[in-house]
Known about the structure:
- The protein is of the alpha/beta class.
- The protein contains seven helices and ten strands.
- It has one domain: Rossmann fold.
- Strands 1-2-10-9-6-3-4 form a seven-stranded mixed beta sheet. Strands 5-8-7 form a three-stranded antiparallel beta sheet.
Amino acid sequence: xxxxxxxxxxxxxxxxxxxxxxxxxxxxxxxxxxxxxxxxxxxxxxxxxxxxxxxxxxxxxxxxxxxxxxxxxxxxxxxxxxxxxxxxxxxxxxxxxxxxxxxxxxxxxxxxxxxxxxxxxxxxxxxxxxxxxxxxxxxxxxxxxxxxxxxxxxxxxxxxxxxxxxxxxxxxxxxxxxxxxxxxxxxxxxxxxxxxxxxxxxxxxxxxxxxxxxxxxxxxxxxxxxxxx
Length: 229
């Protein structure tokens, strides 16, 4: 176990995992209670069957998307469609299908009604990190990274589907717990940038503005850098 210190008031706990089975076992407790937001992308598509195989009791949990591609729900590229078919159905949370939205206005309305406040505070937010450095649908170098007040943003991806909806940095930073996952050998360069505290990366922005966060990282891409134990 390691700690990556961003400043005097912000650090990220670093936990290495060997594979998705061990990752699922290490994180399954965090999906069983409260308001839980889950990112789209290949990381969670791979994790879903391992979570489901553990037969978690999610009766006290409600699930929401961190981000969505602006495509129909039944489109194979819909993040929430994938989550519904591969995760929500197996854990008997089909009703959370209704948290699907196709615009920032629509998703903000859903969140406001469920949380009964202007800024939703999630119990857990699960984030991924793409090989281009994006987190949620926040992309390096875009002005959205300076917006910490918007609850939901409409952003543009550099690759299709171009139109995206995403939680802004405000609700991500305000969450009670943030868990990020980094896996895949193709992300070794991104791992190094995270450990160098490169604030051009959205995930580094998140870590640098929260007292505590957690990063699960695949052992094979753990950078050989000097960090505190």
